[in-house]
């Protein structure tokens, strides 16, 4: 697969993710948490969900500082790329799980995370073919040392064969921050949906934990 084909298909996959948003919203709109809003377990779950979303936004911006303007041009192996080859995808999946948690549901959080993991695993596998074509042995060595998705902690700061300085790309960082802000909308949205349910304007069909 050529690099140009990989980039084109990446655009198609990102459009697919946006089209999948209604599918991710359906279980939220059609169900409600088995824990009442004012109980300790519900508030704890929502707090963890908000924390996951904040980590998602911060992590995506962190990755953007290293990859911004360099994707498919240089092999990035420092920063968050020391721990996982796809930090943007990992943090995005964490954000999807956080969305489920802000609505008070462990089950929805698990489904959202699994959805993100499967989609991004497929995307990263296709991208890996293009990166192998671009960087050859250096990329294969990197794949051997760093996992594709789940971070492996404990790597020393000097690990990695291709350490590069941090490049601040304000355009890429701004774009990543704007894209990531969509995750933050889940926090006020959860309060809005609870209000609609309390007013009887939205009637869930299922109770989920």
From TrEMBL:
Compartments it resides in: Endomembrane system
Family matches, as Gene3D superfamilies: 1.20.120.1630
Keywords: Membrane, Transmembrane, Transmembrane helix
Transmembrane segments: 16-35, 47-67, 88-120
Topology class, membrane: Multi-pass membrane protein
A Pfam entry, by short name: PEMT
Predominant place of localization: membrane
Protein name: Protein-S-isoprenylcysteine O-methyltransferase Ste14
Species per Swiss-Prot/TrEMBL record: Mesorhizobium shonense
Lineage: Bacteria, Pseudomonadati, Pseudomonadota, Alphaproteobacteria, Hyphomicrobiales
């Amino acid at each position: 697969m050529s690099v140009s084909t990989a980039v084109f298909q990446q655009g198609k996959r990102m459009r697919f993710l946006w089209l999948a948003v209604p599918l991710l919203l359906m279980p939220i709109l059609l169900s409600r948490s088995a824990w009442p809003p004012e109980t300790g377990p519900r508030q704890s779950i929502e707090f963890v969900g908000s924390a996951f979303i904040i980590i998602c936004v911060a992590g995506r911006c962190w990755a953007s500082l290293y990859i911004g303007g360099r994707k498919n041009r240089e092999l990035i192996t420092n920063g968050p790329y020391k721990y996982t080859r796809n930090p943007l995808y990992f943090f995005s999946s964490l954000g999807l799980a956080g969305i489920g948690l802000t609505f008070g549901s462990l089950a929805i959080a698990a489904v959202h995370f699994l959805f993100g993991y499967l989609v991004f695993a497929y995307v990263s596998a296709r991208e890996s073919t293009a990166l192998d074509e671009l960087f050859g042995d250096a990329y294969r060595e990197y794949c051997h040392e760093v996992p594709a998705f789940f971070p492996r902690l404990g790597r020393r700061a000097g690990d990695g064969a291709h350490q590069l300085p941090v490049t601040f790309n304000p355009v890429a960082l701004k774009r990543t921050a704007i894209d990531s802000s969509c995750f933050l909308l889940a926090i006020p949205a959860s309060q809005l949906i609870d209000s609609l349910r309390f007013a009887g304007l939205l009637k869930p069909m299922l109770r989920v934990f």
